[in-house]
Amino acid sequence: MMVSVERTEEYTTDIPVEPQDKVVQVAADWPSRGLVEFQHVVLAYRAGLPNALDGVSFTVYPGEKVGVVGRTGSGKSTLFLALFRMLELKAGRILLDGVDSRSRLSSACRSRLAIIPQDPFLFSGSIRENLDPQGKRTDAELHEVLEQCHLRDAVTRMGGLDSELGERGKSLSVGQRQLVCLARALLTQAKVLCIDEATASVDQQTEQLLQQTIRQRFADKTVLTIAHRLNTVLDSDRVLVMQAGRVAELGSPSSLRQQDGSLFQRLLRSGQL
After folding, report:
1. Dihedrals φ, ψ of 165, to 5°?
2. CA dist., res. 94 & res. 250, Å (int)
3. Labelling 227: which of 14, 77, 169, 256 has CA 20 to 30 A away?
4. Tens digits of per-residue pLDDT, 34-63?
5. Contact 179, 151 (CB under 8 A)
6. Could you please report the per-residue DSSP string of 104-142?
7. Which contacts (CB < 8 Å, 24+ apart) does range 131-140 have?
8. Which part of the chain is the ABC transporter domain (predicted)?
9. The model's pTM
10. What's the pLDDT at 199?
């Protein structure tokens, strides 16, 4: 009994609370353009540790497709943690359509962005609940997005929108779980999509389906992709090369590839994207 009480206290006391900055009013469709600006961003995972991002500055323009590459520990995934305000900045700021993201509540900021993670996150419940947790979409809208993500036949075989996925979506293959995450991202209609090595653990056929759908359905959206496979990088408008928490290079794939001695060129040769 006492152990249970101690465990309860452990999870209910001294839990950090996200800072509630002064909130400014912005348009309901913010960000409507998809302009992303990192300005001198500094971030550390906790006090006493080296900076995971150390003065990062770059701009991603509306509708642009940017691949993010770099060796393990270079700061690629930390960019997304900063953008989604999973960690607070030590210095600098991140602007979405010119609005400092810290001027919005963390939850509101996250709800305006879409992400397809490396490990697809699904919860116990129906396909409908996983696609539309707030119950705002019609059956027709859900069926349409499943069709766009090449999932409608699979869902029909399972029994339809109200069929249960099981814990962490165990009724689906890894590739199908990624496609569900893509369908969920489509439903958000967010202007900014972040993809964190989403094709790293799927087969080539599923990767092609993912890339095809992203190219077609997010053609007018801003897309940042942490790249794992070469063809993903070469399809980007520009490539952002991270090294030791800093922006090492930023340019078109062709120009960086042809630049003698570039870090991007070395990464391609070594296959360590």
Report:
1. -90, -20
2. 18
3. 169
4. 999 999 999 999 999 999 999 999 999 999
5. yes
6. S-HHHHHHTSEEE-SS----SSBHHHHH-TT--S-HHHH
7. 131/161, 131/180, 131/183, 131/184, 131/187, 132/187, 137/187
8. 36-269
9. 0.85
10. 65
